[in-house]
Specification:
Alpha-D-Glucose-1,6-Bisphosphate, Chain A, domain 3, seven-stranded mixed β-sheet
Amino acid sequence: MPLRSAEALAKVIKAYDVRGVVGEDVDADFVADVGAAFAHLLRGEGETQIAVGYDMRPSSPELARAFAEGATSQGLDVVILGLTSTDELYFAAGSRNCAGAMFTASHNPAKYNGIKLCRAGATPVGQESGLAEITRMLIDGVPAFDGLPGTAGTVTEDDVLDAYGDYLRDLVDLSGIRPLVVAVDAANGMGGLTVPAVLEGLPLDIRPLYFELDGTFPNHEANPLDPKNLVDLQKFVVEQGADIGLAFDGDADRCFVVDERGEPVSPSAITGLVAERHLDEHPGASIIHNLITSKAVSEIVEENGGTPVRTRVGHSFIKAQMAEHGAVFGGEHSAHYYFATFFNADSGLLAAMHVLAALGSQDGTLSELMVSYERYVASGEINSTVEDQAAATDAVLAAFTDRTESVDTLDGVTVELKGTPAWFNLRASNTEPLLRLNVEAPSADEVGEIVDEVLGIIRT
């Protein structure tokens, strides 16, 4: 294998996954080497099998096959799952108790692709849990397979879509809810495959939007975190007279919700609702939330007798905290939702099913249902290009010194302000010269004032 520089690999091997531009950063030779390195790491831990899935991007099948060649060269067996959502891959890794590799670039544009890796049981692989070691092997060379000649691994194929659907339907019973009209924007991503497979046959009238699998994303980017990519669904919900709208990202592990008026429902509010449902079944349980979720999340958890556990942003951190605290559920501001019943992994469709169950078990509208969960106003994430991120952060802290109630440094800096529930978080990107700002306050005016002041400091 060609040896690679640390600088080149740092562009592609991120904090939680592998991702880059196809043909420039990511190609068949590169992913074959990643497959060999991952397999060598797993073999040393006694693992024997990797399940490999891929999304609808044009480059995904070829890259998945190259990865399989690299993994089998190190003696591991590979099961090719074909087209899958990321949470379907987690289901395979969890139910088979084997490692997994998902080929996707999630919400990124069509020219990107990458790999999300997990160990047996869908345990995440991040920098501290394997990616750093894989990087080292790509720099130094993957050690030669020390097995007997002719004992390379095998490649087989399997399809777990039906089993995945059965598993989700067993977790959330929707058979008894009132009929609902559900508008779904799959953004030409994997939700176009998984939503019908899981929700058909239930008392749901699914109105599909962009269900054709097309990794060139001809209609809009598969990134519902960006408001411009929700516009089509918002209009569609109103046109169809739908009770609810669901928007999935490219690999369908995230789900955003729109109410019957076409108004977005914040992921924090969804976290609060789903947390409450879990606490009804598991009194006193722990609920994980990252530090960008609304203050309402911890309030709702405590009001329902649960224990809120605050963690850093990022799925590898959330999943680790889920295991450490024995949590039953976790949510992020980015609409990743994690379930103990789903191997501590995230599933956008499972979160959607909980919302459908809550909506369909009462007679009110979704906007009425969500009132008690939407308690504050949030700015959303605002990015600023800043070369000296530490200096900019220090300048902001200095400007707010007299108004600061507390500061913590769990992930960047989170500043609680005196005399108000308002807070803001400022944290540096792991991969770009960006500072990310999130603000929450009781009113839009107060949010705007804080945003303007902070941006006025860091953008000068």
